[in-house]
């Protein structure tokens, strides 16, 4: 599969390099508005009241940053899966270089804005990175399917975090990061479309496996479940967004529903995808009702 797809990787890499534009994390940090912290500079310690962001937005920025911090593990995963030679290797290193900007830009911005507790953030970073990351992907097709869905989901999460943060600079930064994620998603999506043509049954089966058991790479973060509920209740990222803005567009663009070259194995996988989407619709409706009651009760505030 890697050998068969390499010409497609080379073509998509050329397209990506012609589309990607350079940007610089330091230009998104409000240096003139920042102040020294306690420690060697003897500045002012961080206090909770200094953050102008809601609890849900703080949660979302925390999850986004700590997820981006774990890039060394992600690089190891894809370099091991795709290799370090030829067009695959060139893509792996380029992807890593572009992704590496995200944590630097987010951390500088959040520290300058005093949006999050920097000590707690560093403690959580150490804990999260010390455990590493294991995708559990069983094949090249599983790996490709996962990164395709994950890049699309991450794009939506960054973009919506910026819209919810109430800070024009924060929105510009997250939109810039989301633009990177979008280009990465386009690369993987179009590569997966080629994989579907090469091995329709196997590719649809791998896609169904990934979609039906999808977890964001930050799911192992401390307190992720509680944070994800607040993020969902705030409308930043929830099951409805995952279904409507991630899964449905991908499946539609890949023409999964229209394929006529599947055997019984592929048809079974496609049926699993349809059932999963139905279940997501039902679960999203339940959570929407729950969040509405929480807001009415005032229990979701803060």
UniProtKB/TrEMBL annotation:
Fe cation 1 binds at residues 68, 99, 102, 181. Pfam families: FA_desaturase_2. Homodimer. GO terms for biological process: fatty acid biosynthetic process. This is Acyl-ACP desaturase. InterPro entries: Fatty_acid_desaturase-2, Ferritin-like_SF, RNR-like. Belongs to the fatty acid desaturase type 2 family. It is an enzyme of class 1 (oxidoreductase). Binds 2 iron ions per subunit. It comes from Streptomyces mexicanus. The keyword Lipid metabolism applies. Its EC number is 1.14.19.2. Fe cation 2 binds at residues 99, 151, 181, 184. Keywords: Fatty acid biosynthesis, Fatty acid metabolism, Iron, Lipid biosynthesis, Lipid metabolism, Metal-binding, Oxidoreductase. GO terms for cellular component: cytosol.
